[in-house]
């Protein structure tokens, strides 16, 4: 009788413990979803407000009681923005600079990452330390010597000079990212290729590079977005309107006393965000796969 009661109490405690654990899990999951929803709202609010402002007429822009949805939406801000500033030409300059810088950074970083990931030693440690330290240098600290170097190379006020700057600035971050992806590739695959007679370059191109495709795409995307959004180097190095990039041209919507032409500025800024959004949406699966590949340990 006592044994039966003891088993009954034990089963009851087990059920209560299981219910308590399930409630805790549901509470934690609910908190996670709430935090994620709050983070999405935090990220989406500026973009949605920018989109709303881009379609508002001047009367609504000066209203003391702004609304989310324009009462009388208009495309006048977009027409005025294109009429006042060379947005298409500036966007082309930004696209050329960002694409070329991303390609150069990835092409240079891939073999370097392969060497760093496979050969551990003092040189690898020193290079890894340089990668980390280089990201801590502020732009202002390097702009004067950088300007002098480009002046001696006759690359000031030119898109090729800006491409060179962006590629060099993106290289440490690209190298750091790709090193993690290379370390996730099993070395046994390279050993098998060596047994079949493949050299280092052939192994990198035919064996390692296809497995690194998601990581290469993700790294190139981050390098592209960084160069597309960069403002300070473009402001200092580019002087003539024909060479300026889109972030610099956006500042032309500000008046002499700091007053902003809010409608055209919002329209132009909205158009400037579209390339990054399109690229992210198109290769989202590649980015996800690259992130997971870099996180796997073998």
TrEMBL record:
SUPFAM superfamilies: MetI-like (SSF161098). The chain crosses the membrane at residues 33-51, 95-117, 129-150, 162-182, 203-228, 262-283. GO terms for biological process: transmembrane transport. Residues 1-26 are annotated as: Disordered. Keywords: Cell membrane, Membrane, Transmembrane, Transmembrane helix, Transport. It is a multi-pass membrane protein. GO terms for cellular component: plasma membrane. It holds the Pfam family BPD_transp_1. The keyword NADP does not apply. PROSITE patterns: ABC_TM1 (PS50928). It is found in: Cell membrane. Residues 91-283 form the ABC transmembrane type-1 domain. Belongs to the binding-protein-dependent transport system permease family. This is Sugar ABC transporter permease. It comes from Streptomyces xanthophaeus. The lineage of its organism: Bacteria, Bacillati, Actinomycetota, Actinomycetes, Kitasatosporales.
